[in-house]
Amino acid sequence: MSLRTPLGRALGLGSAGDGTAHWWQQRVTAVGLALLGLWFAVSMLGADLGDRAALVAWIGQPLNASLLVLLVLTAAWHSQLGTRVIAEDYVHGAMKVPLLIALQFIHAIAAAVGVLAVLQIAIGGR
Amino acid sequence: MTAGKRPLSPHLQVYRPQITSVLSISHRFTGAVLAVGLLLLVYWLAALAAGEAAYAAALGVLGSWPVRVVLFLGVFAFFYHLCNGIRHLWWDTGRGFEIAQVYRSGWIVLLASATLTLVAWGLLLAGGGA
Question: What is the pTM for the complete model shown?
Answer without folding.
Answer: 0.89
